Amino acid sequence: MKAHQATGVDRYAALIDTSARVSRSIASILDLELLLNRTVDLICDEFGFYYSGVFLVDEVGDYAVLTTGHGEAGKAMLDEGHKLHIGGNSMIGAAIANKSGCIALDVGKEAVHFKNPHLPQTRSEMALPLIVADEVIGALTVQSEKEAAFKDEDIIVLQTMADQLAVAIKNARLNNENRSLLEQTKRRAVLLNTANRVGKEVTSELDLDRLLPKMVDTIVDAYGFYYAGIFLVDESGIWAELKAGYGEAGKTMLDRGHKLQVGGDSMIGTCIHQNKARIALDVGEERVHFKNPCLPGTRSEMALPLPFGEKVLGAVTVQSEKEAAFSEDDITSLQTMADLLAVAINNAYTLNALKEAHEELLRTKIYEALTVATTEAIHWIGNKALPISMTVDRMKLDLTDDIPKAESLREDLELIVESADMIMQVKEQLIGQAREQRPRPTLLGDVIHAAARHRGVNNIHIDVSSESAYVLADSTQLARAFGNLLQNSAEANAKTISIKARPAGKNNMVRIIIHDDGAGMTEEVLDTAWTPFYTTKAGHNGLGLPAALHVISQLMGQIKIDSRSGKGTTIEILLPQAFPTRGAVGASPVISLVDDDDIWANFFTGAVKTARRASKPDINADLILIDEFYSGFEAAIEAIHQSGVSRKTIVITAALDVDRMTNLLRSGIDVRLKPYSETEILSLWKE
Amino acid sequence: MTTILLVDDEKLVLRSLEKTLLRAGYDVLTANDCQSGLETFKDNTESVDLAIFDLNMPGFDGLPKPGAGLDLLDRVVETKPGIPTVILTAYDEVAKAKEAVNLGARAYFVKGREQGLVELIEDILKK
Question: What domains appear along chain A, each with residue ranges and CATH number?
Fold first, then answer.
């Protein structure tokens, strides 16, 4: 039997007992929804009432809103948003207004009872206020199908239970508030972290194509928004162009070239125009919201300006699928981020402007250099051709003489030939440097040695450390570059030329310093040192230094020159370091190497165990190798021809030269580039 | 007989000009830098009637120097004021031409119009 169905003392005791049990059951529930549902269910189940519901006072204090109702009737009323006016005709309204419980024993007769179609069988009803610390927070309704179902003592017992419920509701509400404060604190920590990350990104990234997409991803990920995008004002100042957009929607809009008019109806347009954040907490109600088919889920939108000084560079849009999605914290932290972003964008603009200025300067410089080079070339060729035309004119006159002077005419012809030769020499300097380079690990010391021998420069001292032994270069072109530099030193009357190579300490480069104690250059000459065809020396074409610069640049190296008149010249070259395969070559033929005791000869005899170096060729060897720059080269070649072993002889050279090669090839002797690695050595007899 | 001092560091130009001037009937003294040019001039100051200097050639210190011919011109005019001189150059630069004339040169002649040079010399000597 249910508590209220008993009679007399038993009934009262049962009511108290049940009330105590209900109170105990609900006291520890901290989830408000669970607490209220459990309460109405317990009241109906334990006391055997027809219906029970809890109303809570709304924020304004005008209405008591049904928050929980038992059974199907409760569900139907909740769906309808059932609420009763406080102080109105209803029992709930009266109980709250009067802060006291009331009973209607036959609801048909009770003036304040509100006829409720969902509860047609109610005959008795009790409404109990929910009071905590003198504040009415709502009311509890308990209804029975019986007439006169409640007695006065029932009010006392159930009001005690209602008081307990009120305290439990207050606790649950406080718990909710605490939880939301905790959530807020956690979110603030996330936002702080995000702001920190953004701060780092904006200071370390100056490429807007990378920075802006990163920013929209960071904002969406950190805040859990639906979408974020960044617009920048175009050069005309009329349009805000989308530069980065989150996800597929962003990609679609970027592909379409999405842009909004500054000062137009869109939130972005207005925000930029007014340099003020725009927030629409329900975009359906916001006049300036631009309905975007790519973002159908947007319910809240915020547009934040990107201000720099007096200017607005653009705006950030953030959108959420929730209504009223943005908290004060969100707005403050996002605007801080937007301010940081604006600084980064301005920095990127400044950098771009600098780059453009630099490119313009470069174009001007290139044009200037081309003009100077062309003018120098024309003058140079004109100067060299001058004796030709002058001599021809003179010869014409001489030939009109009765007895032309043969000796003078012969001299004139020589003058013409010499001038023509000077012009032709330019061809190799011009074409030579334009030839395609084939970089390979190259023994630096050997190439410098070959270049010096080729140009007849003897007073050199080479000091190459073992770590700098190899550079990545085309040995023929590198020998040409070094040859030009050494020849310049020699022609500046240098008594000694020192060449020192050491690792450059960074980026795997080798630093080569060439220093001579020659005449040096004046500042004026130094300024034009790299200009093609500019020369201060008679009989020169002014292409030596420009050709060296070209070769070194093509090898991804650098060259600079420092010189003072009377103090000599120092040239610094950086070349990429190389690391060739090492180790002894396996089975090999017996090789006779005809060479000086130099760096390459030592490398070769170290790698090939069957190689023997000597000053004369061993005609019985399987293969004879002669270094092109061997001091006794001519005699060695003569010996080869006399012995008839040219077919097994190879002249090896650091720098191939077609003219020199042709003579040797014609006599049956092969000419090859010097091998500088194990693989290259093997190709000497395997090809 | 009219004697001309010709100074140019380009061996072929020097010889060719020398032959052209000889053929035109002048006596020609040659040198290939400032120092030897000045020495030749000092040894023959009285007999040299006209001097022709290349603009760019080794200066008095033997080092290549743009405009070295003007230094030599200065020294020569100092030694024999009023001597007619011609500056030879591959470049038709107005500024250099003005500088040469200001230093006392009668003409600034751009190489390449050699027959014009003979006519120019004749003109200068007539005056």
Answer: 3-177 (3.30.450.40), 201-344 (3.30.450.40), 437-576 (3.30.565.10), 591-686 (3.40.50.2300)
